Amino acid sequence: MPDLPALELLLAVARLGSLGRAAAEAGISQPAASARMRTLERLAGVPLLERTPRGSVLTPAGVLVTEWAGPLLDAADELDTGLAALREDHNTRLRVEASLTVAEYLLPRWLVALREALPGVAVSLRVGNSTDVAARVLAGEADLGFTEGVRAPGGLDSAVVAHDRLTVVVAPGHRWARRRSPLPAAELAATPLVQREPGSGTREVLAAALARHGTPAADPLLELASTTALKAAAVSGAGPAVLSSLAVADDIASGRLVAVEVAGLALSRSLRAVWPHGTHPTGPARELLSLTRGTA
Question: Where among 90, 115, 131 does a domain terminate?
Fold first, then answer.
């Protein structure tokens, strides 16, 4: 197959009646244009141009080639226009999936920094638990995801963007609020808690920490799907809850909730950015990932 510039040059010769004028229009020298035409004729196997004292004219075979080349060049131009539109869309749109903790307490400042760096980018954010986030990133519904679990979800590559610690909290009137010594992990495990729904990274980290003590967690007292609901339930005295330290810092400082120390229980965790395995974030997603590493 001849290359597209050679076909464009042939059409220019047909339109302008001169190889020299066609070369000037294409921004190349006349010797380069002649070489390009010789290559095209060699591929075609027949002469395409006839050189005359008054310029260049197409042979009958050359006329046929230009008729065939026209639709091909139009299709190539349409393809180029479409690819340019795809690139523009990719570079001006960012779809983010994030777990609750990241979405509520970390992403806002990252997105403000992204807006300053890339003011023309439109960001859509969808919030869910870590399992849902991973599934949507794997399905190609997001350019970048943020999860909070024991490890990176399967099928995804990841980068740690922040560290967090879970905190056991109770209302000031709860009996644990008056403890002078750390709560045994076994007692925490045996107590029905106000918890997030299955699939939540917070619930996964707590279950894994208790399992290392050989004490599986009791069935939840309540299952709630938002951090705000969990805090409200704990403040009302419904029962103890386990939440991100980012989420309860202000409530503990104001006395609405009391933090309960648990003996020997590791409740720290890593918060991760995730994307499909074997790929790399590009465009605005790469910029956001860079910003999280710079501000976490």
Answer: 90
